[in-house]
Each structure stands twice: as structure tokens, then as C-alpha cells.
Design brief:
- By secondary structure, the protein is α/β, with parallel strands linked by helices.
- The chain folds into two domains: about 5-115 and about 275-285, Quinolinate phosphoribosyl transferase, N-terminal domain (Aldehyde Oxidoreductase, domain 3, Alpha-Beta Complex), CATH 3.90.1170; about 125-270, Alpha-Beta Barrel (TIM Barrel).
- The chain has helices spanning about 5-20, 30-35, 55-65, 95-125, 145-150, 170-175, 180-190, 205-215, 225-235, 255, 270; strands at about 40-45, 50, 70-75, 80, 85-95, 130-135, 165-170, 195-200, 220, 240-245, 265, 280-285.
- Helix 8 links the parallel strand 8 (about 195-200) and strand 9 (about 220).
- About 35% of the residues are buried.
Amino acid sequence: MIDFLPRIMIEDAVKLAIQEDLGLGGDATSRAVINADTMGEARINSRQAGIVAGLDVARTAFLLLDPDLKLTLHKQDGDPIENGDTLMTISGSMQSILSAERVALNYLGRLSGIASLTGNMVAEAAPYVPRIACTRKTTPNLRLFEKYAVRCGGGSQHRLALDDCLMIKDNHIAANKGDIHATLERARAYAGHTTKIEIEVDTLEQLTEVLDIGIADIILLDNMKPETLSKAVEMTGKRAILEASGGITLSTIQDIAASGVDVISIGALTHSAPCLDIGLDMDLA
């Protein structure tokens, strides 16, 4: 089982999502056409194969709206699922189930889509076993959930936030008038002894300069072709962790992994993953 998200971190976000969906007057349709005492059972079913993530988030949506609902999980986050699999059953007030349905499915479909894309990327790179990492290209206020979904798919983390490590990109160097050495020296003077320093390079010439300076712990090789990445690996000789990034897709990841880099980071895991098709089917008690 994948490590869970602490309930206290889930509830505030889910509560806001429910309040957004209920609007000022609540679920007018369910109140209008369903008696308050009508009970039933619903099944959340997968309509597409993939990897599930976000079950506890979805469960929280139902229970925050109605603590009397009874829920049973049939899968765990990180499990592979097939079309037609039942992921969860919910029994109780039909009004409550339908009022929470969309928020629960929005989280579940979004996070399962991220987990599924990540799983596909990991599988494509598997012969060469590099670490597949997500980035900070996440949906505002959903970063914790989306990065959790990457872990459910077998992926790893880049920075969670700006304070995780010092990551020097091209604009930081440009702000220092293009002086890579001075930029790295300032980073080392600022960083604590436990803080890693990463720097982005676009060319092998920049890589040589960074290696000669000897300060960076991690070097990000930005938008390099597989043959250039292989040369970078040879040049570096384990003196720093090498991370490949930039426009990586399912069709290109295997060649990039074969270059020998240590990490492949992919923004698309969180900013471009399609939602997995998951739906709710209702049965009357």
C-alpha cells in the first residue's frame, strides 16, 4: 500500500471543494426530486484500466458531507485496476451520496489519471531503472494530492516547494549577468550543510564549467537529445547526480533512460495527465 495522506491535510481542501460545489443553497436537484429518507447503495466503478489513487480523498468527501454514510473500499491506492472494477461502495442517504458524488469523482479521476500516466512512464523506463520524478508544475492548491498520486504510480518527487533545495535555473544565472561561478558560490554560501544545490545547464560546455567548479550536487540537463545525455553521463563520471528534463513523452522516455542519467523529471505527469474514467452507479435499497 502507498503511504497515505494524513487526514488533517485532506479535510480542509475537500471541505472547500464541497462548499464550492454546493454553492449558497446546497444540492437543489437532489432535495427537489429525492425524499430525505430515501436510502440506497452506490458503487464507484472504473470504466478504464489504470492505477487508482485518491480513494481516501474521495471517501473524505462523502463523510464530510454525511458522517452517517457507510463506505467500503475494495481497492487500495496504487493498485492496478481494470475496466469494470468496483473501487468503493457507499450506502446511506441517496441525497447525501449524490451531493458528494462530483467532488469525490473529480479527485478520484484526476489523481488516478496522474498515477496511471506515471505508471506507464515508469514501465517504459524500467529496463534502465532511472528515477521518474514529477515537478512543481501542479494545479494550485492540489500539489500535495498530485504528488501523492505520482507516488501511487511508482514515481518519485522533485521539489515539493521552493524551500526544498536550491535549484538554479537559467533566469537565476541571467540575473547574475550570466556568471555561473558566482551564482554557484552565492548558493553555497547561503545553503545550510543539509541543503542540496541543483543547477540547470543547456549545453555540454555549461556542464563542463559546472563540473570544474565542483559545487553542484545535482545537474539538470535541459532538453538534451539522448546522444548528448549519454555524453554528459560519460563526462560527469558520477561526480554529480544527473537529471534529464524537458518535453519527455512515452515515446521518448526509453531512449532518454538508456542514456544512463540518474533521474528523469516530467512536468506532464501532473500538468497533462488525462483523468481516468471513473463513475458512480446507484442501486436502490
